[in-house]
Write a structure and sequence with these properties.
Structural class: mainly alpha
Shape: globular
Distance between the termini: 30 Å
Strand content: 5-15%
Radius of gyration: 21 Å
Number of strands: 6
Strand order of the largest sheet: 1-2
């Protein structure tokens, strides 16, 4: 969910998103997310944390006028989704431009170099507090985690780690009114050179309005500055397509229902290619200089025979065989200031994680946090 040195940083993640999402300035980006997530947004840079803290005290700009562009958008949305136009307009009239959102999503200032550091990124998420709280979350929710693992084949530790990385197990789900964030990014996107990003956020706003008018989402809900919602930081589009009712109460509530969040995370991963009983990384020792094996993409394109031809070998002979028949990819985790790179061999399950947040750093941090949580859970 997050970069190969041959690729440019891209302004956004989620997302969300998951189909969910990533931070606009998170280190370790690869191909730019379709839906941004928010826990990473808040932690990416000290500058961002300062802006976010100040925003908690400052109300959004009091501009709820509906422009001609917004009126045309509302009319099209109402027609295409069979929604009452007056109710669509009513929700849009409640939306405000948020200057803080625009600043946070905006492009990196010219001349400012963002050094990618895998170790710095990892240290933010694979650290004692998040491990300890992850073990507590795991133990407190064993029943629903076991049910999700049995149904979807996603390990409980992976589900726990995603929720831990995204929102610190629900303790930081974002303090921005999602309607304002999406309205700002849909109609006042701060980088005019990226019209596709504004279009993506208009789609997310459309899904948000649709869910609100279907009484499936509170129009006043708060989330990340990119519009991600709840414990797993799902964007509205992901809520619409992948969220499921995990507690059997007939509704989906990713903010207050841990079972809904747990089952939805597992469902999202399976819908994006998670394979039951497959590790995230293959037990492979790569050749001395594997840089040529990295393509920087989010789809595995190699196989075990090709890696063997490149002089890769197994770390141990008892590692199982399931991964050997799967497509594989070599990923790079850079320390740019030092000029060093760590390489790993990733299975389809790693690339399923990158669909949650399109970042090698993100997916690896989730996998490493899951490993630590597993190591500390009492059998």
């Amino acid at each position: 969910m997050f970069i190969c040195t041959r690729l440019l940083q891209i302004g956004l993640a989620t997302v969300l998103l998951a189909s969910c999402v990533a931070s606009p300035k998170t280190q370790g980006k690869h191909l730019g997310k379709t839906e941004p997530s928010s826990a990473l947004d808040a932690l990416s840079e000290p500058d961002n944390r300062s802006i976010i803290e100040k925003s908690r005290l400052a109300p959004p700009a009091a501009d709820s006028a509906i422009s001609a562009d917004m009126q045309a958008y509302a009319s099209t949305l109402a027609t295409e989704r069979n929604l009452p136009l007056d109710q669509v307009l009513d929700i849009l009239a409640q939306a405000h431009h948020n200057d803080t959102v625009a600043r946070l999503i905006g492009p990196t200032p010219a001349g400012k170099k963002v050094w990618r550091s895998w170790q710095t990124y990892r240290d933010r998420f694979v650290e004692p507090t998040r491990i300890r709280m992850g073990v507590e979350f795991y133990n407190e929710n064993q029943a629903v985690l076991a049910r999700a693992s049995q149904r979807f084949g996603v390990p409980a530790s992976i589900i726990t780690a995603i929720i831990g990385v995204e929102t610190l197990y629900g303790r930081d789900m974002g303090n921005f009114r999602v309607l304002d964030a999406l309205r700002t990014l849909a109609f006042d996107y701060p980088d005019p050179n990226k019209p596709e990003r504004a279009a993506m956020f208009r789609n997310q706003l459309s899904d948000f309005i649709t869910l609100s008018l279907q009484n499936k989402l509170d129009a006043q809900v708060k989330g990340s500055y990119a519009g991600a919602i709840g414990l797993p930081q799902f964007m509205p589009g992901s809520i619409m397509r992948y969220a499921i009712d995990g507690d059997g109460d007939g509704r989906i509530d990713l903010q207050h229902s841990t079972p809904d969040a747990v089952m939805s995370v597992a469902n999202f991963l399976v819908e994006h290619g998670w394979v039951r009983d497959l590790p995230v990384f293959a037990p492979v020792v790569l050749p001395g200089d594997p840089a040529a094996l990295v393509d920087g993409g989010l789809t595995p394109t190699l196989g075990w025979p090709a890696l063997q031809q490149a002089k890769a070998r197994l770390t141990r002979s008892d590692a199982g065989d399931a991964w050997r028949t799967q497509p594989l990819g070599v990923i790079d985790l850079a320390e740019e200031r030092r000029g060093t790179v760590q390489y790993r061999t990733a299975t389809p399950n790693f690339f399923a994680l990158t669909q949650y947040n399109r970042s090698y750093f993100y997916a690896t941090a989730v996998a490493d946090l899951a490993t630590e949580i597993n190591a500390h859970v009492q059998p």
